[in-house]
Amino acid sequence: MNRNLIGIILLTLFILFTGWYEITQPEGFSSLTGGIVTFDAMVRIGILTIVVVGLNLLMGYTGQASLGQAAFYGLGAYFSAILTARAGVLGIPETIAKAWWWPWLLIPAGMALTGLFAYLVGRPILRLKGHYLAMATLGLGIVVVILFRENFGISANVLSLTGGSDGIPGIPRLRIGDYELWPVTRYFFLVWGAAILSIILALNIVNSRVGRALRAIHSSDLAAEVIGVDTAIFKTRVFVLSAMMGSLAGSLYAHFQAAVSPPTFDFVASLELVIMAAMGGMTSVWGAPFGVALLLIIRELLRARMHRLFEGAGGEFEVVAFGLILILLMIFAPDGVIKGFRSLITRVRPAAAKS
To answer: Which pTM does this prediction carry?
Structure first.
């Protein structure tokens, strides 16, 4: 049986078990981890997995640096937030704004508009290479967050769309008819269903002719063009796809959190997404969920246990410890935990056979 198929089955079974345990056990899923990983954290891992899968396609397989992925994440979130929580301000009839299908319609619409935006900005900036491209995407991310904070340049007295620095509260939960996808146990299955579908899509891409073209571009633009790959088109397509996946995750985040604000999508958020991708392994689709989970678990573990190791330890101790852990991971698993684990198994098997 194909290893990817086995991986999908195992991940699906794990998600079903996690949801079942949270629903049936009084203490919930967090009791299995000593309160370190909560059920809410599992939902966030699923949402960020979608973003990082797209980032892996762009950076890991195509070799295009991006330090502004959180901008696309934010565009999806704000699109859903504005057209639901601010529907009355925009003059959208209440019969439409209150309809259960309206937020669902906005999710693909937000993906389409984010993809169009990515196409328009991607055509010129993807001509850049290396740190020039990284700086361009960084600038793009900063501009988008400033637009969120400054209400798209519109006076708040005239029309308040983004809520400025305070963001947008009161975003409605998703529903199917009268069935609300809440509490979080219901929303969990929706998020992870979308995450698993994004993984399946990415696996199909990387194992197809398109995936071979992306890897050729990563190795050398010139060599790829020599063998007939239109590098400009493929770079733009994967950039648009990664942006649309970020938008999908942003919409899911908005309806999960029921509020959005600019700091969630700033440069620090983009940097964390890159770190997640690197920790899991940029050249592995499976690195996305593992990288996201590893970063969030390490962060929560340090936050919950650091004070036990060092009495009176504050936030600065957590930052130092987190930095040291990242350094060690990059030294001993430079290609991510997935490839690092595979390499370990490869070395252990011959040793076990000899013994």
So the answer is: 0.94
